[in-house]
Amino acid sequence: MFLTNTIGLRPAETGVLFAVLGIGGLFGFYLAWAIARDRAKRWLILAGCTQLFGGLLMTIPGLAAIPALRFVGAFLVGLGAGTITLGVPSILAGGRGGAEAFVLTFGAVFTISRIGQLAAPATVGGLISTYGFTALATCVAAWLVLGLLFLLPVKSSLFQGAPGQRGYSLTPTHREPLIVALLCFVPFYWLYWLYRAHGEVTSLAPSRSILSPRASVLASLLASPLCPVIVTLLVDALNKGAVELGRPVHRRPWVVFLWAVLFLPAAMALVQSDMNRAMREMEPRKAA
User: Fold this and answer.
1) What proportions of the chain, in percent to the nearest 5, are helix, strand and coil?
2) Where are the domains positioned within the chain?
3) SS3 250
4) Are 89 and 204 in contact (CB under 8 A)?
5) How do the pLDDT tens digits run along the chain, 288 residues long?
6) For an engineered disulfide with 203, which of 14, 66, 169, 229 has Cβ 3.0 to 4.6 Å away?
């Protein structure tokens, strides 16, 4: 109402503004992941200040009247809100360990939910105008049934029982990093690589922080913004394995994460290079 009455925005402009806010919330996942890793208090303060600054850009009339500042403000509000929404539960989960795994799992749900919120206005309107209300009700019922089907294999003990076996390992295979990057332009190869990489890293440096091979593929398909974190966790596992062998870490995780955000094939090539190095380091140990 403020944007409509004071700034004079039309409903369509307000809708676009809130879409930008939702997109900012998706990017809040990355900051929440940082909260789960280190110095939660500092990151939460930063998230709060970001949200406050964005809110001022959207509510001070002299600033909100400028379209560019208005959109920046909406993005920052969404960024701060998304960070806090994910960050606070991850801190609570950290009391039981595995905060990063919690953010990764909850982030998938959060991302799918945000994508649904962004797509809902146009989708709902299109369904009603073209096929009528019955088609919309049928789609909603179908999604509810699908959600119930996903619950069938879940054990009734949930988190109270002992954790099950984590996936399975695959025999490590040497690949040229440049070839891996180029093959990522072949449809679906990147999903095949993710599947293989998670199984092979489990063999080289077992870690409960990484996903199982099948889970990595599903998470990447259903919530693609999680890919940078999924790939970076592979480097974390390889670094931990190197330290246990008394060797220096392979690579700084933030380097792989940044490349994964900017250009995913390059990040995969870096991880493959680290996997090749881990295989070479394991050879003397196997020979002994």
Assistant:
1) 80, 0, 20
2) 2-118, 177-287
3) coil
4) no
5) 667 777 788 888 888 888 898 888 888 888 888 777 766 777 778 888 888 899 888 888 788 888 889 899 999 999 988 888 877 777 666 655 566 667 776 777 777 777 777 777 777 777 777 887 777 778 877 877 887 787 677 665 545 556 555 557 889 999 999 999 999 999 899 999 999 999 999 999 888 778 889 888 988 887 788 889 899 999 999 999 888 888 888 889 999 999 999 999 999 999 999 999 999 887 766 555
6) 169
